[in-house]
Amino acid sequence: MSHENADSPEITFALKLAKALHRYGTPAHRLEGVLVALSERLGVQGSFFSTPTALFASFEGSGAESTHMQRLQASDTDLGKLSALDALFNDVWFGRLELEEAARRVDLVIAAPPRYGKLLSFLSFGLASGGAARFFGGGWAEMLLAVCAGFGLGL
């Protein structure tokens, strides 16, 4: 549900950033805290509630109110994209970037291809699992079994 203030640059950016941060694995308490601080910085009062599959946001300020409920997909953690979004947040926070440009850059972060290809990601599952088995004192047999299990998880 949205009302007429949904087109303000402050609300548009806050919601776009919220969806992106949620998508790439920001925990609910951190997401809510970042959004409250951001909305205050942008001159609107915001209240937020995040679950693994939904975001509820309410804004007050400039004589108008709006409430939003957005159904979101469960997500995977992508630390590279979270880092890019964090840098973008800082640019907005310190006034180095206008909201319209920041919203456009959020779209660019989302559209960017994964940093590593599928093959390298798959191989990493096996190697990390084998390394973990050795770290915890496993021998060659345990390491081989862990590599196979890692490849299974990677599939």
Which descriptors apply to this entry?
single chain, 155 residues, alpha+beta
Characterise this structure.
The longest helix is centred in the C-terminal third of the chain and has 18 residues. About 60% of the residues lie in helices and about 15% in strands. The two termini are about 40 Å apart. A hairpin with a 2-residue loop joins strand 2 and strand 3. By secondary structure, the chain is of the alpha+beta class. The protein is built from six helices and three strands, in the order H-H-E-E-E-H-H-H-H. Helix 3 runs antiparallel to helix 4 and helix 5 runs antiparallel to helix 6. The chain has a three-stranded antiparallel sheet.
- Distance linking N and C termini: 39 Å
The major beta sheet can be summarized as: 3 strands, antiparallel
Let me know the average pLDDT.
89
Number of DSSP strand runs: 3
Strand order of the main beta sheet, please? 1-2-3
Show unreliable segments: 1-6
Overall radius of gyration: 20 Å
Number of helices: 6
Label the overall shape.
elongated
Structural class call reads alpha+beta
**N-to-C SSE series?**
HHEEEHHHH
Percent range for β-strand residues: 5-15%
What's the helical proportion of residues?
55-70%
Helices and strands in order:
Elements (H helix, E strand, L loop, with lengths): L8 H15 L4 H14 L3 E7 L2 E8 L2 E8 L7 H15 L5 H13 L6 H18 L4 H15 L1
Antiparallel strand pairs: 1-2, 2-3
Helix pairs in contact: 1-2, 1-4, 3-4, 5-6
